[in-house]
Amino acid sequence: MKERTGPQGIVERLLAANAIVVYVFLYAPIVLLVIFSFNDNNNVSIWTEPSLRWYGEMFRNDEVMGALRNSLVVALVATAVSTVLGTALAISLERYRYRGRGTLDGLAYLPIIIPDVTMAVMLLIFFFQAFGILDSLTGIRLTTGLHTIILAHIAFNISFVAVVVRARIAQFDEALEEAAADLYATRWQTFRKVTLPLIAPGVAGGALLALTLSLDDVVVTQFVSGAGSTTLPVYVFGLVRRGVTPLINAVSVVMLLASMVLVGVSLGLQRSAAGRQKVLTEPSVVYERAT
Amino acid sequence: MERAAVELVGVTKRFGDDVTAVDDLELTIEDGEFFSLLGPSGCGKTTTLRMIAGFEFPTEGSIRIHGNEMGLKPPNERPVNTVFQSYALFPHMTVFDNVAFGLEMKKVSKADVEARVRRVLDQVQLAQRADARPSQLSGGMQQRVALARALVNEPEVLLLDEPLGALDLKLRQNMQYELKDLQSRVGITFVYVTHDQEEALTMSDRIGVMSNGRLLQVGDSHEIYERPTSRFVADFIGDINLIDGEISGSGSVRLSNGVEIEIPAGHDQSGSVTLALRPERLAIHRASDPPSPGRNHMKARITRRTYFGDVYFYDVDAGFDQPLEVKEENRPEIGTHDVGVEVTVSWTPDAANLVTD
Amino acid sequence: MTGAPVTPELEKGAERAESRRGFLIGSPASAYLVLFFAIPLVLVFVYSFASRSSTGLTVLEDWNLDSYRRLLDPLVVEIFVRSFVLALITTAVCLLASYPFAYYIATRGPGLRNVLLILVMIPFWSNFLVRTYAWRVLLGSDGVISQISQALGGESIRVLFTPPAVLIGLVYGYLPFMVLPLYAAIERLDWSLVEAARDLYADGWTAFRKVTLPLSMPGIVAGSILVFIPSLGAYVTPAILGGARTVLMGDYIVSQFLAARNWPFGSALSFAVMFVMLIAAMLYFRAGARTL
């Protein structure tokens, strides 16, 4: 590729040292957490002997399992819906021109910029108001629950999916779609046989991002969930605020493992993908486009 | 009577209020001919091609293919196929699947698809690489896949958008012969867009020269080169000398340097005119040589000589604002002339064209 | 489809049909965003002018500016300034640590580069809550860090529940957001420019200062905004690592909706914070970035 006049000698070694420090900084907490989750001791930080005790406790704990199930349901539904909507939005914004497109473009970016606290506040007020109006108009009383969590997650995920997919579409040669039409494909056939396969890494990257954000989310979920509909991060968050227990360590490690598995799966999927773009570093594609 | 392959009547394309990409185009392309649209970038040739293909619609006008009005038909409903400048090969499909794409869209039977794709791949000598991906092929091979992918559908008209632009010189020249050959064998009407005049001149049955959205002249290679009707066409194709003058009689013109010369009678011009003379139609004689009969003569002085190996180019100052360019073959019988020497330049009256602006 | 000569009206009709199609494709998403984002946003704005009843319920009458006036309260200002400064410091620390790091990765060969990038991304893809919680384990009074210092003969350090703990947590959480844009900007650099500088007698450091650094500025700006904005509104990290003593904006806003039950004031606070972030984001766009 390009020739590099990289830094030489002592500078080079300092940079390498800095890099090592950063990687240690990034991974040490995670590694230590994993190690301590196998600790037999009640006290979180003092090491006694390895045991799977806390993992067993975790799986027997109804609250934890319930929260886990909720998290999965919410994440899967929210990801599915937001990936479809977000991809459609990306295509609409990137390939077409119409009145109001600029405003929609701006609107689509806001959820990314807005802090999750504000998002949580917005949706809390919204559901409160909406349920109130519904009640006074029809007498139907709705409350918050899994459904409101899902609706909330979709709300912020659409934009993230759209951004990632848009970056991918922008790299896509429009002539390919013209060529398909030239070869007698209808719009739908063009989409199915040419466009979709080629933006698939972007769609997958967006979906992975949405899944991660959904599984990570604490504040928004906390505000719009009701009794009996807590998700795992919110549950853990509540536990943590009350104090650290080894149970939390075990739960945390399982959550960590889950994300690692996700990452591993997408890495594996990439190997067989035709596109050169790596799903994992899709966000960096977005940053590349931005800078 | 055979219907013309492509007819453009009053075709105009405007973008917004201020940009007119194609201005009132009238053009008939005959069945089975190799027709080139030639012009500099931005002249509207690609837009015209895209309108025939259906990727753009005209703002007004009529486009007919074998008599059928295309109107607002989308590209997938038109009996034409395009070879794109960037080839636009589907990167996620093999060569075979790329070429088979159009046939599959038309629901041709698998057996037929197999047979037709294999046959056309043979025609472009790519049978070996049917299972390769486009990214594994060289530029020249990709180009042939693009060609095969279009031809296999047996379109009524084949549209080619500067298909050889990305290839290096030797390859481009080879492909030019191959394309011309292919066209005469297959017999399909080719509409070929290019900015390269050499390509247009060597490959086409007829050429349409465009500039600023207007079709300036249509004719075969000889007509375009030897008988340009406008300044632009004369200048765009090859090298040209443009000399201003005034009509001073039915068969004569007084040039801006004062010399009076003969032109073929039978023109309808009067007042100021411009003459277009190809450098190779001018000859340089020693000042002492007697004038040759039937030729116009002018005194001049050599100001520069450039050696190109096979030819010499001379700049001669004949009293005009710009020097005249003269091209002479590098042959011993013709001899060379030194810079600074006083000479005479001559040409036959029919070598000069009266051109409009 | 029609097979008739085209007129300007027909062409316009075709263009409008195309536009309509584009609009329709995006309409489910845009309808969703309007309903679940734009309207809630407007509601927050409306609520910030509302009143609070004695029982803590929001009353949508007696519109006033009380909530906004309260923003100027010394207590509120103090919280805001504290959050702002913390976000700035977080951004600065991230930048200082990430730049050499991104530079290092960008100057490796292509194979190694990808591996290094993925190694940075893996923590990013891991659960945010868990990563932050891990620091709680490390920083407690009998956490690992404390144990190490005790083993070295020092006393028990408790970093937890202090501002530095929050700083560490924020830096840890948002470091990848700084690394990626920096990496992208540096990787994109035209190194022949650096070579040209060297050719013109600049030494390594000067070449860096006058060529590399300015040209990587878009990446610096992008990364800084991407770290600053979430840091300013951070809630989870300070909640886990900061304890009750250092109150930051995120927690202050949340408490208005849970404990204190003052929704109008909470709305005004949210709006104020969002306003600051929008300004930051606009600076970001102004600095030449085309998309986020």
Can you summarize this structure?
The complex is a heterotrimer of chains A (291), B (357) and C (292). Chain A has twelve helices and no strands. Chain A has 291 residues and is mainly alpha-helical.
Structure in words:
The complex is a heterotrimer of chains A (291), B (357) and C (292). Chain A has 291 residues and is mostly helical. In chain A, 77% of the residues lie in helices and 0% in strands. Chain B is built from 8 helices and 20 strands. In chain B, a hairpin with a 3-residue loop joins strand 1 (6-15) and strand 2 (19-29). The longest helix of chain B is centred in the middle third of the chain and has 18 residues, at 169-186. In chain B, helix 2 crosses helix 3 (110-123), helix 2 (95-105) runs parallel beside helix 4 (139-151) and helix 3 (110-123) crosses helix 4 (139-151). Chain B folds into 2 domains: 6-233, Rossmann fold (3-Layer(aba) Sandwich); 240-355, OB fold (Dihydrolipoamide Acetyltransferase, E2P), CATH 2.40.50.100. Chain B is of the alpha+beta class. Chain C is mainly α and 292 residues long. Chain C folds into 2 domains: 8-59, no CATH class; 70-286, MetI-like (MetI-like fold, Orthogonal Bundle), CATH 1.10.3720.10. Chain C is built from 13 helices and 2 strands. Chain C has helices spanning 8-47, 66-70, 74-106, 110-125, 128-139, 144-151, 163-187, 191-199, 204-215, 217-232, 236-241, 249-257, 263-286; strands at residues 51-52, 58-59. Chain C has a two-stranded antiparallel sheet with strand order 1-2. In chain C, helix 7 (163-187) runs antiparallel to helix 10 (217-232). The longest helix of chain C has 40 residues, at 8-47. The mean pLDDT of chain C is 84. At the A-B interface, helix 7 and helix 8 of A face strand 6 and helix 2 of B.
Q: What is the N-to-C succession of helices and strands of chain B? A: EEEHEEEHHHEHEHEEHHEEEEEEEEEE
Please summarize the sheet with the most strands of chain C. Answer: 2 strands, antiparallel
Biggest sheet details of chain B: 6 strands, mixed
Q: Per CATH, which architecture of the largest domain in chain C? A: Orthogonal Bundle
Question: CATH homologous superfamily name of the largest domain in chain B?
Answer: P-loop containing nucleotide triphosphate hydrolases
- What would CATH call the homologous superfamily of the largest domain in chain C? MetI-like
The total tally of domains of chain C equals 2
Low-confidence stretches of chain C: none
The total of helices of chain B stands at 8
Q: Estimate what percentage of residues of chain C fall within beta strands.
A: under 5%
Query: End-to-end span of chain C in angstroms?
Result: 41 Å
**How many strand elements of chain C?**
2
Count of helical stretches of chain C: 13
- At the first level of CATH, what is the class of the largest domain in chain C? Mainly Alpha
Shape, principal axes of CA atoms of chain B: elongated
What is the arithmetic mean of pLDDT of chain C?
A: 84
Radius of gyration of chain C: 25 Å
